[in-house]
Amino acid sequence: MARLDALLQLHKVLIARRSDLRVRLLGDLDSLHSKEGRDTADEAFDAGNEEVNCQLAELESDELSQIERALVKLQKGTYGSCESCEKKIPVGRLHALPYSTFCISCQKEMEEGHGWDTRSSNSNAGWAKISDRALGLVDSMESVNLADYE
């Protein structure tokens, strides 16, 4: 019964975090629209911050997707089970990362590159191992003249 109570509490945490992220992402979109009609000095001042803000918004959007996925798993009754070994994920791990889909040992195994499970929502994380140099894109990228595109 203690696990069920903990899962119900985590449901509340996920709902609250989802609401917070939605508000933050809507605020980010509103701030982008409110910058219309500003002078070039203001735009130049904010240019450096925009890239960081866009990256943060992307991370928040990814987290929101993971939270939505966890909430669907809660509705289906599969929340808290490892997607790889199907064992119960310890409640302590779920408290630390409520949208975890893997137990610690399976997560470590995946991060080390052994036994990658394509059922994972993070299956595109394997792309991080591919570099531009390995794909032969570095040389072609170095020959691009940005002035040609202006």
Overall description:
Helix 1 (2-34) packs antiparallel against helix 2 (40-76). It is elongated, with a radius of gyration of 21 Å. The chain has helices at 2-34, 40-76, 91-96, 104-111, 137-142. It is mainly α and 150 residues long. It starts with a helix and ends in an 8-residue tail after the last helix. The protein is 60% helix and 0% strand. The longest helix is centred in the middle third of the chain and has 37 residues, at 40-76. The chain has 2 domains: 1-79; 81-145, no CATH class. Mean pLDDT is 75; it is low at 117-146.
Summarize the topology.
Elements: H1 2-34, H2 40-76, H3 91-96, H4 104-111, H5 137-142
Helix pairs in contact: 1-2
- Indicate the overall shape: elongated
In percent terms, what proportion of residues is strand?
A: under 5%
Computed over alpha carbons, the radius of gyration is 21 Å
Sheet bearing the most strands, described? none
How far do the termini sit from each other? 64 Å
Average pLDDT confidence is 75
SS content category: mainly alpha
Tell me the series of helices and strands, N- to C-terminal: HHHHH
Number of helices: 5
Fraction of residues in helices? 55-70%
Tally of domains:
2
Which residues sit in consecutive blocks of at least 5 with pLDDT less than 50?
Answer: 117-146
So what's the oligomer here?
single chain
Count the beta strands.
0
